[in-house]
Amino acid sequence: MVWKEIRMDLMTDISAQLSQSDSARLAQVRELAQGRIRRQSIDYWNREDFAPALVAELGAAGLGAVQLEDCSHLARGLIHAELARADISLSSVVGIHNELVLGMIHELGSEAQREMWLPRLGKLEAFGAFAMTEPEHGSDIAGGMSTRVRREGGEYILSGRKRWIGMGTIADFALVWAREPESGAIGAYLVESDRPGFHASKIGNKIGLRIMQNADIELDDVRIPVENKLPGATGFAAANHLLMQSRAWVGWQAAGAMLATLDVCTAYAASREQFGKPLASFQLIQQALAEIAGNASACLAMMGNIARKQEAGELTMADAALAKSTATRLARDAAAKGRALLGGNG
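RE: above sequence
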C-alpha cells in the first residue's frame, strides 16, 4: 500500500500547483492516456506500425494544438509527461508535432501558411515533419548542413538528404532546413511531400519509438514556390529557439517514462509472491522502488523549475540542455533498475 501512495503522491504534489482549469485539463488527458492509449498502443508498437485511430483520438482531445492552449507551461509539461507515461512513441508524435511543426509555423510562418495549415494541424488531420538532421550531420548541423537551396525565378530548388525525420513517410509536408551556397544563409522551406523529387523511406527495425515513423528523405531538385519559404526562419538562431524549447519537452518525456516504470514495478512487486510473500516486502526490492521513485521525484522537481523559467521568459539553452541530459540519464537508470526488479519477466 505504501508504494501505491508514493506513486500517486509524485504527481499529486506537483499538479497541486496548477490552476483549477489546468488541473481539470490534466485529468482529462490522464484518463485518455491511461484508459485508452496505454494498452491500445501495444499492438502497434509490436508491429512497428503507425496508430492512426489512436492519433485521431488524441486529435479529438485537442492535443494537436496543446502548444497554443491558454495554459501554464507547467500544465503543458505535465500533459506531455502523462502522454509519455502511456506511450513514448505517441508522446513523441504529439510533442514533435506541437514543438517543431505547428509551433514553427505559428511562430515563423507567413500569415498564408498559418491560415492554410494551422487549423488542420491543430486537429491532427494534417501532419508535418521537421527536417533538419542529415545522414552525416547531427550535432554539427549548424556548420555542416549540406542540403542546398537555390532560387530560380519564382521558385526555390532544393537538393540533399535528411535522416531520422519523424513522421517523414506520413507527413503532408516537411519543414526542410537548407543552406544557400553563395551566401551560406540557412533557412526553412515548406516542401509538400507530393512534389516531384521528394522521396521518403521508412527507417525500420528500431528498438525505440516504434510507432513514430522515422524516415530517410531525399530531395532531388524539388521545386517549390518562393511563397513556401518561412519568413521568420532566418538563420540558425531561429531553429535554436525552437530546439531549446523541445529539449525541455524531452525532459518531461523522461519524467513520464519514469512514472510508467514506477507504475509497472509497483504493480508487479505488490502482486508477485516469492517465498510466500509479495516481492514488495523484501528490502532489496524496496530499495529499487525507492531509487526509481527518487529519480522520478527529482526529475519532476527539476522540470517544475524549468516550467517556472519558461513562464518568466528566463529559460536558457544551458537550462534546457541540462534538463534533457539529466532527465534522460535518470530515466535510463530507472528503466535498468525496473528491468532487473522484474527478473526474467523484465
